[in-house]
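Today's session is about reading a structure prediction critically. Students often jump straight to the picture, but the first step is always the sequence itself: look for stretches that repeat, for charged clusters, for runs of hydrophobic residues. Only then move on to the predicted structure, which in these notes is written as discrete structure tokens rather than atom positions. Here is the chain we will use throughout the hour.
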Amino acid sequence: MFSHDWLYGKSRFGIVGVDAWDGERVVGQVAAIGNRFLLNEKPQNGLTALNASVSPEFRGKNLFSRLCNELCEIAAFEGFTLIMGVANRKATPGWVKYADFQLVSPLSARFGVGHVAPLADLTDAFESASFRRDWDIK
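Below is the predicted structure for this chain, in token form.
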């Protein structure tokens, strides 16, 4: 069996995952990793939803929506106040349409050699962001 310790096992804030089963077989999954965020400079325990899948023969049967709703219910029960989704271009419409997530902005991908930006520019960006990951947690 494939181990997800490198991703899920290292989270200080836990994980929330929901599986859909057809007998002995997993046919759908939504998983999110706990993180600390700052929203308008106020700490929030939240989740980053990273992995979602539904087997092809179970698509179109509202399974993804049900998994996402259950993820949200469990997250709220566990004390998480927000869920941030990270999805590729094909998955984003599903999160918005079926899971009722708000599309804030697509991520832009860039690559290069050397420094991406001067450190001062990055510091200014972090300080002016109303929502960001809290990297300074103790």
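Discussion point for the tutorial: DSSP finds four helices and five strands in the chain.
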